[in-house]
Amino acid sequence: MKHFFPLLLLLSLAGCAKDDPALPNDAPDRTVVCRTGDGTRSAPEPGTLALGKQLENPFSLENMQEAIMSIKTRSLPLPLLNRMTGEMMNEFIKLDRLPFLSPTHLYVRFDPKNTEELDLLQADTTLVLYAFPLDYEILGEGEMPRQEVTYDPETLEATATAPVESLYASVPVTQALPEGIAHTILEYLFIPDDMDEDIAEEIGIAPLSPDFSELLIDQSMYLTKNISLEDLQLETRGSSGWNPQGVIRAYDDHVGDYVAVPHAKVRTRRWFTTKYTYTDKNGYFRIGKTYKRPANYSIAWESHDWDVRDGSFFQAYYNGPKRKGEWNLDINNGKSLRYATITRALYHHFYGPNNPFERVGNQHKTKIAYLHKSGGSNRGWFSYLHISNITPDIAIYKGSKYEPISKTQNVLQTTYHELGHCAMFHNCGGDDIHDSDNYTKYKKVILESWATMIGWYMTTAEYEYLQHPRFEKVGWDYDYNRPVAGLSRIVRNIIYFDVPDTDNLQDVSQWEYQNNTHYQKYSPIFIDLVDNSNQKEYYRLFEPYNSDIYPDDKICIKAYSALVDVLYQSTNLTELKANLLANCDRLGTTREAIEDYFAFYNI
Question: For a designed S-S bond to 290, which of 120, 241, 274, 596 qualifies (C-beta 3.0 to 4.6 A apart)?
Fold first, then answer.
C-alpha cells in the first residue's frame, strides 16, 4: 500500500550540509552517503541523513492478513512453519476464526499548519514523533536538514509553506488523536508484539505470545521482501536476541577529550515500535527490549523537563544507525555537539548533585532553542515575555561576534546563565508574562549579576567534577612571603588563588565604579560573594601594578540557601548590602568584610 508524501519534506531531506570542522573522532567509521531527490548518490557528507526508497510495509493490515493466510495454506517454506508449536497453533486458530483482522495502531502523518499547532503537537508526551516517514529507508546518520521558519507573533502563522513540518507517528487505536491538527492516516497497522491489554480488548483478541508474534512478523517480513529466507534462518537459528546498549559522549575542548552526556533520551525503533531510555551520569544506556534483528537508533534531545530545539520550533534529534548490537556514539561537531553540551548543562541544573541553588520550576517543559548563527554581542538570551508562549524560553547561539564558534565551556556557561534567569523568574512566582511584576522589580544589575554567578559557579563545578579545573591555581606562602610552585602537601600558611582571566569574570575594570549612578549590569558582585579567591590580594602579590582596580574581597559565602533568601530581598545594590549586613551570621561572613567590599563601589 503506497502513499504520496509531501514534496516539501522529500526536498528538505534530500541535501547534505557542511558544518564547522570536525574534531578528532575515535569512534567507528561513520561515512555517510546521502541520496538526492532524483535517486542518484551524492558525495559522502558526515553528519547528515536523507530518505532512501520506500519499503513495503510488513505491518500493514493487508500484509499481516496475507501472513496469516500463508500460515493457514502452508504456502511458505517449511523452516518458517516448523516453528509452530502446539500453543502457537492454538493462538493461530483463535486469530484465524476472527471475521476480520482489526488494526492495533494507526500510521499517521500530522501536518500542523502553523507554529502554534506544531508546539501543541510536540508538547503531547503520549506521541512518539519522527520528522520523516517510518516506512522509508533512512540513509546516513546525524542531523536532518530543516527549513528556516519565522512567524508572525500576532497570527502565529509561519512564513514557510504549510505544513510547517510534517511529523509521523504510530498511534494505538485506543488513543485519541490531537484535536484540531490536520492529519492523514497513511496505513492501518497490525503490530502483534506491541499490543497491551487495552488494545487487545478493543480489537477483541487476547494479547499474542512473543513467539507467535515474532513468527507472524517473520512471515510478513519474508512476504514483503524485507528479509530473505537465508537471512531469516541465520537470525532465528539459536538466537537469543540482543538488548540495545552503549555510551553517548561529546567532545569537550577544555577537557581535550570526550565526556559523558547524561540524560540523553536514546530511542530504538523497529518500523513503527519505539522503546527508549535515558543515559546515566556516565553516558551509559541499556534498553530492556530484546531484538533479534537490527533496530534504528536515535536520540531525541528532550526529557520530561526540557525540550531542546533545532531553531525556534523544531524538536532536535540525532538519527543514528540501523544496526544489531551496541551503539557507542562520540559527537564531535555540528549542531549535535551543541545539543549534547546544552543537555549536559540541563542535566546538572535539573538533577545534578552540584547545584546548590534553585532550579527551574516550570509547569511546562523548558524550551531551549539552539540557533545555528551568531548572536551578535550575546551568546544567548532569556526573556520572561516568551514564558508560556510557543517561542523558546531560552536561546543559545552558535557563537558571537567575539567568538564565532563558542567553546564548550562557554556553551555550558551561557546555558547555566539563562537557566539562572529562568529559575529566578519562576521562583518569583512567574508562570507566564502576566506574573512578571515580581521579577521585573529587580534592577538589571541584580538579575544579570546573579545569572552571571550561576553560569560561573555551575560551569566551574562541572569541570571540578570532571577533574579538569577551569582555572589555574597559584599559591602564596605567607610564612616565607613567596609564591609556591604547584600544590604543596606541607601544612603551613599557604593560600591558593584562582588565576583571574576573562572566563572567571573577575576583571571589574569593565565596571563603571567611578560613576555609581550607572552600574555595569554584568558585574562580578555575586561571584565575589561565593568564591574563595580575593582578586585584590592576588594582584597585590602576583601583579602589583593591577591591584588598585579590584575590591578587597574577603567574603566566601557557602550558606547558599541563606544567600538565595538575601537575593530575593534585594531589588538593588543598596538593598543587597543592607541585607547582607543583616544576615552576616547566617551567611558565615563578617560585617567588616562586607563593608570593605562594598566600599570599593561607593555603596
Answer: 241
Q: What is the mean pLDDT of residues 365-381?
A: 90
Peptide bond into 163 cis (omega under 30): yes
Q: Is the pLDDT of residue 547 over 90?
A: no
Q: Could you give the CA distance from residue 603 to residue 445 in angstroms, rounded to a whole number? A: 14
- pLDDT above 50 (res 31): no
Residue 247's identity, in one-letter code, is V
- What's the rounded mean pLDDT across residues 192-207? 88
Q: Which of left, alpha, beta for 576 (phi over 0: left; psi -120 to 50: alpha)? A: alpha
Amino acid at 339: Y
| Cα-Cα end-to-end distance for the chain | 76
- Is the CB of residue 381 less than 8 Å from the CB of residue 416? no
pTM for this model (two decimals): 0.87
Among left, alpha and beta (phi > 0; psi -120 to 50; other), residue 223 is: alpha
452 and 414 Cβ atoms separated by less than 8 Å: no
Cell of 74: 502452508
**Strands 366-374 and 306-310, sheet pairing:** parallel
Report angle CA 439, 440, 443 to the nearest 5 degrees.
Answer: 110
Among 592, 30, 66, smallest CA distance to 319 is for 30
Is 25 a residue whose pLDDT tops 60?
A: no
The 3-state DSSP class for residue 329 equals strand
Cα–Cα distances in Å, from 176 out to 112, 124, 231, 232, 437?
17, 12, 38, 36, 39
Judge contact between 449 and 524, C-beta under 8 A. Answer: yes
pLDDT digits (tens, 9 = 90+) for 47-85: 667 788 899 999 999 999 999 888 888 777 666 666 777
Q: How far apart are CA 251 and CA 341, in angstroms?
A: 9
Query: From the centroid of its chain, how far is CA 19?
Result: 19
Q: Tell which residue, 364, 202, 221, has the closest CA to residue 294.
A: 221
**Lookup: cell for 291:** 531484538
Query: pLDDT for 233-260, tens place per residue?
Result: 776 655 678 999 999 999 999 999 999 9
| Nearest-angstrom CA–CA distance, 372 and 444 | 27
Over residues 140-165, the mean pLDDT reads 70
Average pLDDT over residues 432-443: 77
What's the number of CA atoms in the CB half-sphere (13 Å) around residue 561?
Answer: 0
State how far the Cα of 133 lies from the Cα of 129, in Å rounded to an integer: 10
